[in-house]
Amino acid sequence: MSNPTTAAAKTVIITGGSMGLGFQAARHIATTYPQWNIIIANRSTTAGQEAVQAIRKQAPSASIEAQPLDLGSLASVRTFAASITSRKLPPIQALICNAALQVVSDTRTVDGFETTFGVNHLGHFLLTQLLLPHLVAPARIINVSSGTHFSSTDVGQADKGGMPDPAYTTAQAAAFPPPVSGGDLQFIGRQRYATSKLANMWHTYELIRRLEQDTRLPRPITVNAFDPGLMPGTGLARDYAPPVRWVWENVLPRIPALTRLMLGAAPTSVPVSGANLARLAVDPAWEGITGKYIQGDQAIPSASASYDEHIARELWESSKELVKLKTPEVALA
Ligand SMILES: NC(=O)c1ccc[n+]([C@@H]2O[C@H](COP(=O)([O-])OP(=O)(O)OC[C@H]3O[C@@H](n4cnc5c(N)ncnc54)[C@H](OP(=O)(O)O)[C@@H]3O)[C@@H](O)[C@H]2O)c1
Fold first, then answer.
1. Which of the following is catalytic: 168, 193, 205, 240?
2. Which atom of ligand 1 is found nearest the CA of 98?
3. What is the pTM of this model?
4. Per the structure, how many domains does the chain have?
5. Is 33 considered catalytic here?
6. Where in the sequence is the domain holding 317, given as residue range(s)?
7. I need a surface site. Which of 24, 77, 188, 247 has the fewest CB within 10 A?
8. Which of 256, 230, 255 is nearest to 148 (CA)?
9. Rounded to whole angstroms, what are the CA distances from 51 to 23, 100, 151?
């Protein structure tokens, strides 16, 4: 439960707030913006509780709690949203869709979706839809994307960290790809991740277009996408072979020059990126800003493919069907 001794006036939900970028964003909000009630949402309840305890050590009066959420389960997303929206919380004014997986194994969610697409896009799509009617304006939604959403043909984009270009045809194909095995998975798994991050961009821009047309929802709800930069040391390499994971977690954070050499991109520190993400979600300096792709703390153009409205519409409509959104639940037509 949140710490009852504080008088937090508004709530921010951070998916994947138990570690990595999400944890650092939660920690920054707890230590810098005491008026916010923080809900971190992830699968491991132990890790969630440990994160809350670690943050309370730095901010003893912080209003913060962990709630279980598995974005790879539509039922879990529904349970989480129902539990959050049925409680008397300070108004929900920020949603940070941060959790993500990068898998190099060919797995499926409990609903049968390819895991990367299921967790990184579909889970957040459903969560956003279910929470939208409960946001209190002025509210902000931040979708954490990545420089990997760029293609190598995009002008001036070298910071892909050695990742393959995204490859997207339809949401159906992304959700139900044919099985793969063997060495292909290293490439295909990383490509699926890049594609899911491009899907985060299409979701962001389509959400803005639909919000602009919908008069039923409170205004303003701003929506931005965020690229934290390359952050070696986080849990993102958890599915890789142990030696690769070890280098990512223990060596690269200490030797930036090696990161540049191996991945072709300059690393950023997780606390710095977490603070940037936190500010984007709650700081008055970003009030009213919408439709931007923020790299670090600067708005820059996103990949040319991300502005494709036709694909964004297809992704949206197909996602609605894939997550089985019921008619009364459809916040945005
Ligand atoms: N690390 C980088 O270099 C980098 C670069 C660019 C962008 N990003 C983006 O930054 C964001 C955070 O990544 P990170 O590096 O901080 O990763 P991380 O350290 O692995 O943290 C991921 C978080 O997401 C949670 N999570 C994973 N699967 C989940 C699921 N099915 N349902 C709910 N929560 C889930 C994890 O907790 P549980 O496992 O307990 O669920 C954890 O809290 C991601 O969107 C990633 O794409 C990272």
1. 193
2. 45
3. 0.96
4. 1
5. no
6. 10-231+268-329
7. 247
8. 230
9. 7, 17, 35
